[in-house]
Amino acid sequence: MRILITNDDGINAPGLEVLHEIATELAGPGGEVWTVAPAFEQSGVGHCISYAHPTMIARLAERRYAAEGSPADCVLAAVGDLLATTPPDLVLSGVNRGNNAGENAMYSGTIGGAMEAALQGLPAIALSQYLGPRTAGLADPFETARQHGASVVRRLLDHGDWRSDQDFRLFYNVNFPPVPAADVRGLRVAPQGQRRGSRFGVEPYVAPNGRRFIWIAGGSQQAPAAEGSDVAVNMDGFISVTPMRADLTCHASLARLAAALDAPAPAEAGTP
């Protein structure tokens, strides 16, 4: 198996080393693991691509490259250039330092890399490690992802739905809970949730020269979410698996809105 790995924390991030271990185990002795990751941290860039300027690609070692761009850029670089004649069988993005459950998924470059792979017609999985009080004292904060990652990916490869949505290919978002590896209670398939009362905001800052800046600040990652959602099952000690696709349509609203808006417009007064 040929596996491409990327991330949004950057080429030197410890979570990428964990993902390389996972991918190497999955690829097997005769397989290949290719790394194309951002040269610098790209957290929060979502599905951004560097459309208006070129992206430099640097070879660091055999099958290891850094790109001055986003995770989606990295996938495009691999698919369109580095692996153009031998495309990967699987794309893995992560392991992110911090969760990409709930509203975080909307901002995540880790998700963006997996989404781009799906749009390119490749099987893709994003993996993230939820952090919290129970992981703070661990010698390896990624131990849960490290010990359970390969097993979860194998189960998805064997049982995941990879073919039913050909227009917007499915991909998967996996979040490992904020507990030690030995305390994981199992795996749950869960929809994306939203933490109640927790959202991104800003912290204004005035520099000594009088210029005004803002810092983007995240909300509490321990805030509750709807029962059964990815956030809730993670907080209960379960690994969450969420099927996703690159389609922002609210399908639940289509029929009602069409009934209201697709009807012929009423005739104006005085029109025969």
TrEMBL record:
The keyword Hydrolase applies. It catalyses: a ribonucleoside 5'-phosphate + H2O = a ribonucleoside + phosphate. It is found in: Cytoplasm. GO terms for molecular function: 3'-nucleotidase activity; 5'-nucleotidase activity; exopolyphosphatase activity; metal ion binding; nucleotide binding. Its main location: cytoplasm. Its cofactor is a divalent metal cation. Residues 3-196 form the Survival protein SurE-like phosphatase/nucleotidase domain. InterPro entries: SurE (IPR030048), SurE-like_Pase/nucleotidase (IPR002828), SurE-like_sf (IPR036523). Binds 1 divalent metal cation per subunit. It is an enzyme of class 3 (hydrolase). One of its GO terms (cellular component) is cytoplasm. It comes from the Bacteria. A divalent metal cation binds at residues 8-9, 43, 96. Keywords: Cytoplasm, Hydrolase, Metal-binding, Nucleotide-binding. Its EC number is 3.1.3.5. Coiled coil: none annotated. Gene3D superfamilies: Survival protein SurE-like phosphatase/nucleotidase. It holds the Pfam family SurE. Belongs to the SurE nucleotidase family. HAMAP family: SurE. Nucleotidase that shows phosphatase activity on nucleoside 5'-monophosphates. PANTHER family: 5'-NUCLEOTIDASE SURE (PTHR30457), 5'_3'-NUCLEOTIDASE SURE (PTHR30457:SF12). This is 5'-nucleotidase SurE. It comes from Paracoccus tibetensis. The gene is surE.
